[in-house]
Amino acid sequence: MRNKLALLGTLSIVLLISLGTFAPLLSPSAPDQQNITERLQAPSQKHLLGTDDLGRDALSRMLYSARISLTVGIVAVLIAITLGTLIGMLSGYFGGATDTILMRFVDVMLCFPTFFLLLMVLAFLEPSILNIIIVIGFTAWPGVARIVRAEVLSIKQRDFISASKLLAVSKSRIFLRHILPNVFGPILVSATLGIGDAILAESGLSFLGLGVQPPDASWGQMLSAGKEYIHIAWWLSVFPGVAILITVLSFNLLGEGIREKLNPRK
């Protein structure tokens, strides 16, 4: 509560999730409802965010897009966090050949520019929400694995871990009761910051036509459609762009706030 920026980010995230959750109740119309007679209308009392080239209400599409963009970001990060935590803990705890093999694999994954790797994989897959989530999740875990490994290497040298080994505590119990709770903080920070990155990745893929496909809507797809009319219908690009900016900034503010709170030097 003392960190005003983190609090602002949290409130923004809660608002965005609420808008996406209650989109059917808040939307003036269905997101795919067309009315050619009202195409490319500027923001007005009837259409608060204007209409697109097919006469669809931009506010309705923005609200439903929040559902998709947030879902992709959160679920993809859950996949990445699960994989990264598992591999990082195994690598850091067992060390030796296990650590060498796993970390060399992580190094290879980190050598590829993430966005170009996403493009390469999605070029061979059918563009869909599920495929986007899976691909982003399975390409975002190496950074998490490095963070978790570093934390485990530090934690396993502490006295309470040595005491547990002397008491013949099982490795699984050490993992779950002693190591995992102590790496939860960095994992939470990584997850919070990663959601913003995942939303940006989804928006970029949708902008290039490899992400969410019509009739579903996402902010990136709305940006892509709006670029054709940027000179005569600025609202089609500005509002989705602002939504992406606010969402990513909110998750970053929350992540930085959590990082400061968990920093023992503060």
What can you tell me about this protein's structure?
The chain has helices at 4-21, 23-26, 58-94, 96-111, 114-122, 129-139, 141-155, 159-166, 171-207, 219-226, 235-262. α1 (4-21) packs across α11 (235-262). It has one domain (67-262): MetI-like fold. With 266 residues, the chain is mainly alpha-helical.
Total tally of structural domains: 1
Determine the mean pLDDT: 84
Query: With helices defined by DSSP (H or I, 4 residues minimum), what is the helix count?
Result: 11
Count of strand segments: 0
Highest-level CATH class: Mainly Alpha
Low-confidence stretches: none
Largest sheet features: none
Q: What is the share of helical residues?
A: over 70%
Principal-axes shape call? elongated
- CATH homologous superfamily assignment: MetI-like
CATH topology annotation:
MetI-like fold
Radius of gyration: 22 Å
Cα-to-Cα separation, first versus last residue:
16 Å
Just name the CATH architecture: Orthogonal Bundle
What proportion of the residues form beta strands (DSSP E)? under 5%
The assigned structural class equals mainly alpha
**SSE ordering:** HHHHHHHHHHH
Describe the structure concisely.
By secondary structure, the chain is mainly alpha-helical. The protein has a single domain (67-262), classed as MetI-like fold.
What is the secondary structure topology, with strand pairs?
Blueprint: H1 4-21, H2 23-26, H3 58-94, H4 96-111, H5 114-122, H6 129-139, H7 141-155, H8 159-166, H9 171-207, H10 219-226, H11 235-262
